[in-house]
């Protein structure tokens, strides 16, 4: 950096610290003016930065906000913003670390399912902005000979994501998204695997059969169908899993006959 | 826009207005979008903008390039801006005299710069870099500010004039920002407009602001969440009478109203521009 840029770099460094940290501290480079104090003037920027980033998280994690309430959500989001500010000027990319943050955020420890619900919401957000592709119908599988099927690779739609959880995250997400009065979901409710897809404009959320996350992970790594099935538990309901994947628009291509 | 047509008024494009715009095809001159909202790989935002672009001229307004960063432009961001420009062929591309990224952290606000020679040289370098990468002229917008820095060496109008002269960029004159900064920094908006290097202006922005009154005085905050106030309309009319019609945008980004309310604001700006046409015709 040229020496004459150092004062500006220094001012921006203290501005950055000043707008993000919890305590109000006006950068030394800020001049006094008649009327409102330096503190009030600087606070406009602090408020703009923090309020806009909290609002950006709010827009993406609406179910988390409903689960914890507005006040708790805003306080939580504010701590996240202070500790993990965005690293990209594209605001749609901000919030990927929120689920992991919730895992270690002590005040939310009573709600152990929050991080996985946040992962589902983040996957939905990512799916909305993912690249477009045209899903293929399951009929295409039927055109393959049984031997070819084993060696076939499925190309997944770029929007496709899976969120597996020991908690019933899809049931929690669904009732908090669509019901004016949320349905009570018992503590003995089984965990759920969420399939997130976006075949056209709308993002879809479905529940996948148990064990299917391992199958899909193998498919995503480029394994052929036969190999992927081998990596899933024997109890997996394969017919239902494949039917759901195709119906939800998760598959955009079949590459057949490439041996491993 | 066709060269033989007089500049028109436009509106900021909002997803809430999708149905009104695509089905109703309102008679507004053009739409402006924030470039960063279209840097995703795909999905409904792009489908909406593609359909709008097929019907209207589009202007690209960047909010994340951080042209005043002491540490340089954010790596990769300029390429993404170029890709959006390539895809949508905007008739104008603009950014702000401000910074928002430091040490890789993006603060999501248009933060102020000290108006001194070192900053001017930096901003000129960055504008050069942007214009070379995009292969075209960009417009730089005067910011809304709430404070000033110690040791500033020139007025904002001088800074912008030198920037435009030395980098070849144009300017985007945000009239609401003039009113906001004038109240906050204690200058006369009319004197500011008299001193503004108007020969470089390629676009005008109009918006509303909030008034924060406290015991030690009043601050105006650039909120874009309401209709354009009378003072801003008055300055806009004076500018158009002086300069002739210029592409004029109504910015309404928060508490976005129903389409007819925004459309009425655009129509009001349009009537000012047509009044400017008449004055020019009389003078000719």
Helices, strands, pairings?
The complex is a heterodimer of chains A (260) and B (284).
Chain A: H1 6-20, H2 38-60, H3 62-68, H4 70-83, H5 98-104, H6 114-129, H7 139-142, H8 146-151, E1 153-156, E2 161-165, H9 169-178, E3 192-197, E4 204-208, H10 212-220, H11 225-231, H12 238-247, E5 251-255
Helix pairs in contact in A: 2-4, 3-4, 3-6, 5-6, 6-9, 10-11
Chain B: E1 9-12, H1 18-24, E2 30-34, H2 44-55, E3 58-61, H3 77-88, E4 92-96, E5 99-102, E6 105-111, H4 117-134, E7 139-141, H5 156-167, E8 170-174, H6 175-185, H7 189-195, E9 201-206, E10 210-214, E11 217-221, H8 230-243, E12 248-250, H9 259-283
Parallel strand pairs in B: 1-2, 1-12, 2-3, 3-4, 4-7, 7-8, 8-9, 9-12
Antiparallel strand pairs in B: 5-6, 10-11
Helix pairs in contact in B: 4-5, 8-9
Tally the structural domains of chain B: 1
Helix % of chain B is 40-55%
CATH topology (fold) name of chain B: TIM Barrel
N/C terminus separation of chain A: 52 Å
Q: Tell me, rounded to a whole number, the average pLDDT of chain A.
A: 95
Kindly provide the name of the CATH class of the largest domain in chain A: Alpha Beta
What is the number of E strands of chain A? 5
Sheet/helix structural class of chain A: mainly alpha
The fraction of residues assigned to DSSP E strands of chain A is 5-15%
Rg from Cα of chain B: 18 Å
| Largest interface in this structure | A-B, 51 and 57 residues
Largest sheet of chain B: 8 strands, parallel, barrel
- Assigned CATH class of chain B: Alpha Beta
Order of helices and strands of chain B: EHEHEHEEEHEHEHHEEEHEH
Number of DSSP strand runs of chain B? 12
Overall pLDDT metric of chain B: 96
Query: What percentage of residues of chain A falls in helices of 4 or more residues?
Result: 40-55%
CATH-derived architecture of chain B? Alpha-Beta Barrel
* Strand portion of chain B: 15-25%
Quote the distance from N terminus to C terminus of chain B.
Answer: 23 Å
| Sheet with most strands: strand arrangement of chain B | 1-2-3-4-7-8-9-12
């Amino acid at each position: 950096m040229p020496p004459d840029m150092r004062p500006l770099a220094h001012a921006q460094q203290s501005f950055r610290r000043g707008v993000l940290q919890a305590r109000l501290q006006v950068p030394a480079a800020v001049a006094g003016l008649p009327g409102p104090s330096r503190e009030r003037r600087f606070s406009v920027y602090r408020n703009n930065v923090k309020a806009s980033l909290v609002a950006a998280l709010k827009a993406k994690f609406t179910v988390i906000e409903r689960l914890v309430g507005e006040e708790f959500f805003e306080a939580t989001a504010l701590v996240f913003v202070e500790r993990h500010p965005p690293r990209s000027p594209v605001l749609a990319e901000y919030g990927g670390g929120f689920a992991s943050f919730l895992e270690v955020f002590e005040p939310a420890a009573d709600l152990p399912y929050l991080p996985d619900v946040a992962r589902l919401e983040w996957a939905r957000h990512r799916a909305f902005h993912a690249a477009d592709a045209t899903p293929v119908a399951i009929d295409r599988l039927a055109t393959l000979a049984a031997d070819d099927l084993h060696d076939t690779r499925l190309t997944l739609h770029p929007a496709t994501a899976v969120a597996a959880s020991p908690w019933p995250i899809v049931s929690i997400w669904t009732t908090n998204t669509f019901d004016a009065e949320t349905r009570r979901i018992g503590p003995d409710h089984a965990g759920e695997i969420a399939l997130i897809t976006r075949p056209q404009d709308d993002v879809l959320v479905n529940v996948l059969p148990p064990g299917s996350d391992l199958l899909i992970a193998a498919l995503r790594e480029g394994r052929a169908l036969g190999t992927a099935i081998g990596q899933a538990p024997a109890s997996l309901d394969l017919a239902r899993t494949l039917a759901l994947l195709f119906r939800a628009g998760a598959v955009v291509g079949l590459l057949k006959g490439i041996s491993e | 826009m066709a060269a033989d047509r007089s500049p028109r008024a436009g509106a900021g494009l909002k997803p809430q207005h999708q149905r009104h715009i695509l089905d109703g095809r309102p008679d507004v001159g053009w739409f402006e979008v924030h470039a960063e909202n279209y840097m995703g790989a795909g999905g409904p935002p792009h489908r909406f903008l593609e359909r709008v672009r097929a019907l209207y001229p589009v202007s690209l307004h960047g909010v994340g390039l951080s042209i005043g960063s002491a540490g340089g432009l954010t790596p990769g961001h300029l390429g993404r801006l170029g890709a959006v420009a390539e895809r949508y062929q905007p008739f104008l591309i603009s950014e702000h005299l401000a910074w928002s990224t430091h040490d890789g952290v993006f603060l999501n606000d248009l933060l102020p710069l000290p108006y001194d020679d070192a900053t001017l040289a930096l901003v000129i370098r960055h504008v050069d870099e942007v214009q070379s990468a995009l292969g075209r002229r960009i417009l730089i917008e005067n910011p809304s500010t709430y404070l000033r820095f110690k040791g500033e060496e020139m007025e904002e109008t001088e800074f912008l004039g030198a920037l435009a002269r030395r980098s070849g960029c144009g300017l985007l004159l945000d009239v609401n920002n003039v009113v906001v900064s004038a109240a906050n920094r204690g200058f006369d908006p009319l004197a500011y407009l008299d001193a503004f290097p108007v020969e470089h202006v390629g676009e005008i922005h109009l918006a509303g602001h909030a008034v924060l009154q406290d015991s030690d005085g009043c601050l105006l905050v650039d909120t874009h969440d309401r209709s354009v106030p009378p003072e801003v309309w008055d300055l806009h009319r004076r500018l158009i009478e002086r300069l002739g019609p210029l592409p004029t945008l109504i910015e309404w980004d928060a508490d976005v109203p129903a389409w007819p309310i925004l459309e009425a604001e655009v129509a009001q700006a349009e009537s000012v521009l047509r009044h400017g046409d008449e004055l020019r015709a009389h003078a000719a």
